[in-house]
Amino acid sequence: MSKIIPPEHILHILSRLEARGFDAWCVGGCVRDALLCRRPSDWDIATSALPEETRGCFPELKVLDTGIAYGTVTILFPEGPVEVTTFRVDGEYTGHRRPLKVSFSRNIREDLARRDFTVNAMAYHPKRGLLDPFGGRGDLRAQILRCVGEPSRRFDEDALRILRAARFSAALGFGIEDGTLRAALESLGLIKSLSGERVREELTKLLCAPGAGAALEKYAGIVLAALPELPALPGPEDAPPSLVPRWAALLRDICPETARGLLIRLRFSNREITEIIRLIRQLPLTPKGMSLAQRLDRAGLTVRDLAVSGGDLIRLGYAPGPGLGAALDSLLTGVISGGLQNRREVLLRYALENM
């Protein structure tokens, strides 16, 4: 497995926090991806510093309160935004989604213990090395997704973790460990407690992942629990792994009005719904004999292919978070539909006009 080498601005955050007497680690997906020899899309920091203490450590930089109730602030660097979150311990959960109370901690191990899967529950420090209290590195080698602690409890706390298991399977090409999968399937009824936005976000990430076809075939029950309007998963035709074509391909074998109702429930934008329905009407019914994996795993446009990045939009004035993601998705939809040229000046002007 790869050696972890955080970029310079991440090392600067760690050293600045520690110079002020706080503990700080790289955590979560960046550690996982670095160990897998993948380039992390972002680097998250966990620290013993409280949000206001973190802010005080970086007086020369802009710091946004992006998730202050959960201890998260976002530091804006020229290299891009970095989320820094206080170590925390979650109390009892409500509605199978959110903890009723969050307590901040000074202990990194307590923070890792509340996370979803072992491969996401590792921390790294350039001097202290890898902290892996739940065997995440071994599960990376075995290519399996295993819950931290008791799987049934993890899914009861947050039903979104059921969809995340399928999504990470698609993104990483990993299988779901037997006990974790059994608990997920036994907990499918909890998915109905999730908001449409959350279901949409997770399934869009799944559909756009490299291994989407294989994951959908293997874990169809999980997806169908989130999309009860579908009698079965259809076999989409070749489509680029981006939001509009993927959803159109997934919904192509149900009537457009049923698809429209599903998209409204998932709170897609009016523009996205119009474009998806337009594509559904253009697609023929799924031909027989062609696997879902063959049709979904074809390369095509993604947000990363855009001539602008999230950092560009932040410099325009967008705040990190769901709104930024929605803006990038809107640009991608415009490029795919032909309404926008994939040129930097065109996309920046459109983004500025639609802030």
Could you characterize what this model shows?
The chain has 355 residues and is α+β, with helices and mostly antiparallel strands. The protein is 46% helix and 13% strand. It is built from 18 helices and 13 strands. It has helices spanning 8-19, 29-35, 51-57, 108-113, 136-142, 151-157, 160-172, 178-186, 196-207, 212-218, 220-226, 243-251, 256-265, 270-282, 292-296, 310-316, 322-337, 344-353, and strands spanning 24-27, 44-47, 63-67, 72-77, 80-86, 88-90, 93-94, 98-99, 102-104, 123-125, 129-131, 144-145, 175-176. The strands form 4 sheets. A 7-stranded mixed beta sheet has the order 3-4-5-2-1-10-11, sandwiched between helices. A hairpin with a 3-residue loop joins strand 10 (123-125) and strand 11. Helix 7 (160-172) runs parallel beside helix 9 and helix 7 (160-172) packs across helix 10. The radius of gyration is 21 Å and the shape is globular.
How are the SSEs ordered, and which strands pair?
Elements lengths: L7 H12 L4 E4 L1 H7 L8 E4 L3 H7 L5 E5 L4 E6 L2 E7 L1 E3 L2 E2 L3 E2 L2 E3 L3 H6 L9 E3 L3 E3 L4 H7 L1 E2 L5 H7 L2 H13 L2 E2 L1 H9 L9 H12 L4 H7 L1 H7 L16 H9 L4 H10 L4 H13 L9 H5 L13 H7 L5 H16 L6 H10 L2
Parallel strand pairs: 2-5, 12-13
Antiparallel strand pairs: 1-2, 1-10, 3-4, 4-5, 6-9, 7-8, 10-11
Helix pairs in contact: 7-9, 7-10, 12-14, 13-14
Q: What percent of residues are in strands?
A: 5-15%
Classify the oligomer: single chain
**What is the first-to-last residue Cα distance?**
42 Å
Overall mean confidence score, pLDDT = 87
Give the % helix: 40-55%
Number of helices: 18
Backbone shape: globular
How many DSSP E strands?
13
Output the strand order for the largest sheet: 3-4-5-2-1-10-11
Secondary-structure-derived class: alpha+beta
Provide the gyration radius in Å: 21 Å
Low-confidence stretches: 236-241, 293-300
Largest beta-sheet characterization:
7 strands, mixed
